[in-house]
Amino acid sequence: MPLDSAPAASPSRQDLADHLVRTRIAGDVATSRENNLDHYRALAEGDRYYWLGLDFGGRWSDASAVLDVMVERCGVVADPQHRTGQDTIDAELTVDALDRMAEVLRKAAGNRSRVLVASGHPAGMFAVHQVLAAALEAAGCTVAGPVDGLYADNGEVRQVAGVFMLHRGGGLVHTHSPEPMRKVLDALERAGEPLPDVVIADHGWAGHAGSRGIETVGFADCNDPALFVGEAEGDIEVSVPLDDNVAPHLYAPLTAYLLTRAGLPVPTP
């Protein structure tokens, strides 16, 4: 059965890497080199939109240093003179990061930890997050939420299938903002509930959680350098490099691999 279909069992490491390249989750991804470099420059210039809720002070004011991190942790083209056209994510780095994330999930399941799952990519990464939330809950973890009556960025914070997302205008929306996560964590504290032990998220949801000192693992595209810089600084435990907006079913082999490595059951498609 081709890996582009949802598998009932985990692929091997090599089969997963091949699948990631074939589906452009890694390899020659859709994000252009121009877009990547623009975002690295914006982070270095202090544009907080690109900090995703983390605080870098003046420590990353050199865009070339940001590029170096992205080469090391994401696998973008190393040549600083490569300014236009194709950019890349190294599939081997993606799988390496999945292995590290799996260890965090394994520990969370073993400790029956309190976890919080959130996504700013409802059309793509929700397919991964909701399976992880269900698997961890089945393993005995407590999945934080729901929290009613929260609003951020002219929208409502909602939880669907264990995953916090932002709702606006009748639909779930793509957001980079850290504000929804801020609202959720503040609401938990006001209610006297413990903050999560582990957060699984992306974009500003992950960045803000990491800034609060919560053990945070996340997924990030090659044009979102903040989570990789945050990982380099120790605020983010793991950032998995991937194209975060391909067709949802294409992530199924990645999710199966991650669950298997974490010792969690893979759902039957």
TrEMBL record:
Pfam families: Phosphatase (PF15698)
InterPro entries: Phosphatase_SCO2771
Organism superkingdom: Bacteria
Organism field: Actinacidiphila rubida
Record protein name field: Phosphatase
